Amino acid sequence: GNSVTQMEGPVTLSEEAFLTINCTYTATGYPSLFWYVQYPGEGLQLLLKATKADDKGSNKGFEATYRKETTSFHLEKGSVQVSDSAVYFCALLNTGNQFYFGTGTSLTVIP
Amino acid sequence: EPEVTQTPSHQVTQMGQEVILRCVPISNHLYFYWYRQILGQKVEFLVSFYNNEISEKSEIFDDQFSVERPDGSNFTLKIRSTKLEDSAMYFCASSGESAGNSPLHFGNGTRLTVT
Fold this sequence. Notes:
The complex is a heterodimer of chains A (111) and B (115). With 111 residues, chain A is an all-beta fold.
């Protein structure tokens, strides 16, 4: 089957700290992988994506690399800001064109 | 930037009542979706809609659920007789092309509380 598992939160970091949010997946076939972000009071927004193995998605200083050998798509940022406080969702899109989301990881960055 | 809007932001209803959750997708989008997230659980796919008909639905989307695009701009989710376990955040989404070819644009969600 298809599923996404991401690290449980909440995560609290100081400004300029390094961020990693782990995400692993199970899928049949070759899915595309995504990170969505939900800022307080808003809907989910696409943050970055990768469509095949070894692709790296990046946006706003965030990066994630599609690792087929470890079935992972961990989200990283070298130096977080207060404005990065949000809930982050890892997701996969399978070959049947259905999205599967993780539970979300809440990040709070304190000044 | 155009956005998907959902109303109301919070709906409280009694068990057994019908609710209609409303969404206005981005105007030139062709694919429409409903997802839900029960508190603390994963965001789950409910249904996708294209060309005025359901294209896919999950096991969650049983006979109590229906979707409609009544007037070319709104996209509604109706729950016929709500149960306590229907309490969740419901997200509407739309895309210009099929999922994966263009990003999903999500609304802010409607929090449904069934008492």
